[in-house]
Amino acid sequence: ETGVTQSPTHLIKTRGQQVTLRCSSQSGHNTVSWYQQALGQGPQFIFQYYREEENGRGNFPPRFSGLQFPNYSSELNVNALELDDSALYLCASSPEISEEAFFGQGTRLTVV
Amino acid sequence: RKEVEQDPGPFNVPEGATVAFNCTYSNSASQSFFWYRQDCRKEPKLLMSVYSSGNEDGRFTAQLNRASQYISLLIRDSKLSDSATYLCVVHQAGTALIFGKGTTLSVSS
What band does A98 get if pLDDT is binned at 50, 70 and 90? Predict the structure, then answer.
């Protein structure tokens, strides 16, 4: 196991609702990245946090937001959920920005 | 053009076969390269890093050609347990990992 834990593992939400996903990074890791993986696709980069600051963002709308806490755990928030937001959301932590990333088991979000 | 492109799958091979996956990337500033393995409904896991000199780990061999911006993965003597999706991944300094769409391998007995 990687030591990266995500919660919840599964979630069903209604279109228009808001959701918060959580990630606990591996001990000693200060970088957390979030990815969205739709069915049949590779993971798509949402954003990255390094020492509590956003350090890059992929091509996702502003309703996708996040933060990183002093203990380097992180949250991903999605507002105004759309059906296309249904996906596996993956969190990955690294000791530093450019080092190997370790993934959590993911949160499977279904929007109905 | 996608940043990372992989062979379309799926690859269906018998046990013992040799199979090769190819991948190209568009950003010449990419610095690190990886192959990840992803089992059905699981998280991606690092299979191996890829270096210009090539590297081998048991039955798996990875190659990088920076001039052609091309990455490959060779699996020899395929096992049933090799059945998975293989993701080509590149990394540019100061950014997160960029994944290809993945290629599905199915090894049958």
Answer: low
Distance CA B109, CA A107 (A): 33
Between chains, do A42 and B102 touch, taking CB under 8 Å as contact?
yes
Q: Burial code of B68-105, b = ≥16 C-beta within 10 A, e = fewer?
A: ebebbbebeebeeebbbbbbbbbbbeebbbbbbbbbbb
- CA A96, distance to chain mean position in Å, is 17
- The reply to whether residue B96 touches residue A105, judged by beta carbons under 8 angstroms, is no
Do A35 and B42 count as a contact with CB atoms less than 8 A apart? Answer: no
Cα separation of A37 and A21, whole Å? 14
Cis peptide before A43 (omega within 30 of 0): no
Residue A43 is nearest to which of B44, B45, B93, comparing CB atoms? B44
What pLDDT, in 10s, does the model give residues B65-106? Answer: 999 999 999 999 999 999 999 999 998 777 788 999 999 999
Quick one: average pLDDT of A9-35? 95
Residue B35 tokens read as 């192959």
Residue found under tokens 């699996």:
B75
* Chain B contact set for A33 (CB, 8 A): 96-97
